[in-house]
């Protein structure tokens, strides 16, 4: 039904307009008590066996919505109603900014991918903090807050911009993510180099601790799939050294040629980050590499090209405690979360693992023990 609607209606509309429209429906449904209770019962059924704990936070399951969909934290309950066990809001920047001008979101339907160059369009850390402060949650869902650099702030002053966001947002964040991997803010990805990343993560950690004294807000870093393998290892080692809580792998890619894309060449050539199915193999590879390096010392979050329960299961076996997705939501629609939960619960039941936690990284551990 959704797929037919998508093909007949949505593909004829501008992708960003569809996003805003879908967003409005989700928010509206979440505001009507009967509708949201019914929707949550159908779309977000709980599976006891999927209960997950990550960096000290308890969740109904491992599957959540990746950053970028709800940049300003306006639809957390609606998204929770659709079955996302955690919702990562943002990227939020120190100051409000409009993002890039013009058309900035493109569908690669034949490849089940998206290209975006949104450029962190968001209302800024003060406004988003104020919204989170005034929020009365309907559903108890874990809220991650993803922060990034304001475009006009020079690279040398990036840390102060992140610190500003961290101080304002940490009190309302179940976990905090330092995003240094979006390709759409000039220079941002340079911050992944350990000599820049070490002081940045240290400063954000200190800011979160200053701002929230009653608990320790878990801190994660989100990395790009385009890092060379040695750089993935370097970030992993740094994360261990700094006592980081997690690594999110991965953001969108700037790669094109090597991915064998079948969509229209003009769309493929659009500048921006590519997400969805074409990203699947590399994201999985980065995740495996991270798990092989850090094991259970750091929680890993697998994201990039997750389309169905099998993909989510593969991420868990490769080392992910949590799994996220974004692009496939556009192609699969509101039943997506439900299908992933159901499929994951079925896979766990027929697997040799007693719990989901036992399955985390099992593939990588098995490969190691047979080498
Ligand atoms: C339109 C769009 C906007 C995004 N915005 C952000 C963002 O603001 N911050 C961020 O960390 N990731 C952002 N992402 C990246 C996603 O969170 C995710 O890492 C990436 O899309 C790979 O997952 P997927 O293949 O399931 O989409 C965005 C992705 C898309 C498609």
Summarize the structure.
With 371 residues, the protein is of the alpha/beta class.
List keywords for this structure.
alpha/beta; 15 helices; three-stranded antiparallel β-sheet; single chain; binds flavin mononucleotide; TIM Barrel; membrane; Dihydroorotate dehydrogenase (quinone); dihydroorotate dehydrogenase (quinone) activity; 371 residues; eight-stranded parallel beta barrel
Question: Could you walk me through the main structural features you see in this protein, from its secondary elements to its overall organization?
Answer:
This protein has helices spanning 2-8, 15-31, 33-43, 76-81, 125-133, 158-169, 194-211, 229-242, 265-268, 280-294, 309-317, 327-332, 336-350, 356-359, 362-370; strands at residues 52-54, 57-59, 63-65, 86-93, 105-108, 113-116, 142-148, 175-179, 219-223, 246-249, 273-276, 299-303, 320-325. The protein has a single domain, classed as Aldolase class I (TIM Barrel), CATH 3.20.20.70. Strands 3-4-7-8-9-10-12-13 form an eight-stranded parallel barrel, surrounded by six helices. A three-stranded antiparallel sheet has the order 5-6-11, with no helix packed on it. Strands 1-2 form a two-stranded antiparallel ribbon. The chain contains 15 helices and 13 strands. By secondary structure, it is an alpha/beta fold. The chain starts with a helix and ends with a helix. InterPro entries: Aldolase_TIM, DHO_dehydrogenase, Dihydroorotate_DH_2, Dihydroorotate_DH_cat, Dihydroorotate_DH_CS. Its main location: membrane. It is a peripheral membrane protein. Catalyzes the conversion of dihydroorotate to orotate with quinone as electron acceptor.
